[in-house]
Fold:
Amino acid sequence: MDSTPSDEIAAWCALLRAPGVGSQTLNPLLTSGRSARELIERPPRDVDGPLRDYLRSPDRAGADADMAWLAQPRNHLLTITDPDYPRRLRELPNPPTALFLHGDAELLQTPQLAIVGSRNPSTGGRNTAREFAAHLARCGLVVASGLAAGIDSAAHEGALDADGLTLAVTGTGLDRVYPARNRELAHQIATNGLLLSEFPTGTPPLPANFPRRNRILAGLTLGTLVVEAALNSGSLITARHAAEYGREVFAIPGSIHNPLARGCHALIRDGAKLVETADHVLEELAPLLPGAQQAIALRSSEPPAAQNATDPQHAALLEAMGFDPVTTDELVVRTGFPVAEVSSMLLLLELQGHVLSGAGGLFTRVGKIP
Structure:
């Protein structure tokens, strides 16, 4: 990123705070050769409406708060006129006028994949997001998400667990963390990746901010993977933006009885690519990723992971479970085994990683019968 005089940066910060004025108004003015300082000090005659009213008395106190934040280590403002502004974002209709960054800004030049989904996922969905993120991060992708609870958090955590790189696009100013319980996660991302927002400091988590966050997430990345999502999920907004922008859209299918699978199924019906493994994602993105084909070949040449041995009764219990969530009582009826025996086997199978326990006393089988 180039060095810009502080008074020019302060002028950008002031312009970004103009209420009711977005990139559709600001971008043409700021990419036409005018400096931000000129717009603040000598508004041209062709500026009218809310922006002209604002320029009579710009929010200098707010801009000062932004400048104080930018003075801290590893904080940056990346404007649309900067040559390092991400090319993929620049291609969008009305791209963000500027981006506030905290962390490693070089990640913006590295291939990224968005992983999104429900804020209240199943245990299996959360584990799937972590596993996919970890594998994809090991293969060199930056895992991007929205720092929300649920699948977003699991995706960030999976990348960090694999010593990979992750990027979070937020719906608040970067001096805030939302949700607050993700404060430690945000700190880890800032240390090992990048936090990004188009919102100035002090911006609270307003509902209108999150569709704007989703459009950045979709536009910045090579594609979007949806792990679990209900039909009304905000994750579908991200996926639809990605499709509109010509990015890849991936969805992981689930049980027809799982409400959190319906959003993914809707995306698949609309043309999203059905994926069952992280390598399916890599195969689709391979033309855009140097080294991806080698990673896939290496993965396929690895010997299969050793399965824990199970006796015939355990195999019969897993067969009776199917792949939909089921209660202990239902398994007793299906197998004829005593309740105590079923409970004991479920505990052992969960410890071995073949079964997941969820809310409401439900159990779900994972993978194939050993």
About this structure: The first helix runs from residue 6 to 16. The mean pLDDT is 89. The longest strand covers residues 98-103. The chain has three domains: 6-79, 106-301, 312-365.
